[in-house]
Amino acid sequence: MLANKIEIWIKYDYNFACFVPGRFCSALAFWGPIIMVIAKPDGKFFQFAMFGMALGGLLTTFYPEFTIGTPTIFAPVNFTGLVYHTLMFVSFVYVIGIGYYKPSMQNWGSFPLGMLLMVPYILFNSQVLGASEDMYLFSPAIEGTSLYWWAIGLLAICIYTIFLLIYEQFAFEKQSRWLNTTYNKIRNYFSSKKKKSRKEINESLNETQPNNDLENTKSLNESDKNQ
After folding, report:
1. Mean confidence (pLDDT) of the chain
2. What is the pLDDT of residue 61?
3. Cα 4 to chain center, whole Å?
4. Could you tell me the pTM of the whole model?
5. How far apart are CA 129 and CA 119, in angstroms?
6. Which residues have a Cβ under 8 Å from the Cβ of 29 and sit 6 or more positions away?
7. CB burial class (10 A; 0-12, 13-18, 19+) of residue 111?
8. Which residues in 60-90 are b (16+ Cβ under 10 Å) and which e?
9. Secondary structure of residue 213 in the 3-state scheme
10. If you average pLDDT over residues 110-129, what whole number do you get?
């Protein structure tokens, strides 16, 4: 990433604002490795960093917009940009592949929340620090489409959720999978409600039974007196 920033700095007349990690990918490329070192692999920060890096890497792999209209991808700015974006996705695959990190649905909310918090972060860096903005907040990723940040974010969250559910089916024991634990919680909830309802009915019957017995006894006594 640093090599790419230096090339951009040279290209844009040595503007030091180029070094501010204010773009989505550069922010994740800068903060991601730091989080990988200091955060716990089963924590929420780690999960957001990993999937944020994966998203940034994949978007650029399939749609490297900064190479569009350029004569070659091997120009220093283009090539270093492609390399560091690719390394972001490779880092994600690597930590999962060696078993260091096991993503789970338990930390599901970290990614949507992190994506949401990236908006004020990028706006601050672009509006206050002068960094360029590439989160597609004001212009779509592909001209003439509705692929603004919110659309990309919702699509990414759907893919992220599907990935986690499939991953847990292979990487987790059955009793630890989110689908199984959620199903058991729902089943136990309705089972307890059913038991509670039966208990209330039985208690109600038990309360009315003595009253009926008492009334029957009184009726018999009155009948005996009349005789």
Report:
1. 80
2. 77
3. 28
4. 0.75
5. 15
6. 1, 21, 53, 56, 84, 85, 88
7. buried
8. beeeeebbeeeeeeeeebbbbbbebbebbbe
9. helix
10. 86
**Domain coordinates of the chain in residue numbers?**
2-172, 174-227
Neighbours of 165 (CB within 10 A): 14
Tokens 């992220």 label which residue? 160
Q: Is the pLDDT of residue 138 over 90?
A: no
Q: Which two tokens stand for residue 92?
A: 């994600």
Q: Please, is 51 exposed, middle or buried when counting C-beta atoms within 10 Å of its C-beta (0-12, 13-18, 19+)?
A: buried
- Listed residue (71, 78, 89, 70) closest to 25, CA to CA: 89
Report angle CA 180, 186, 189 to the nearest 5 degrees. Answer: 135
Spell 137-155 as b/e; 16+ CB within 10 A means b: eeeebeeeeebebeebbee
Q: Provide the CB-side half-sphere exposure for 104 (13 A, CA).
A: 17
Residue 154 has pLDDT above 90, yes or no: yes
d(CA 72, CA 120): 34
At residue 220 the predicted structure's pLDDT band, cuts being 50, 70 and 90, is very low
Average pLDDT value for residue range 81-110: 91
Burial of 216 (0-12, 13-18, 19+ CB in 10 A): exposed
For 76, the token pair is 């220093």
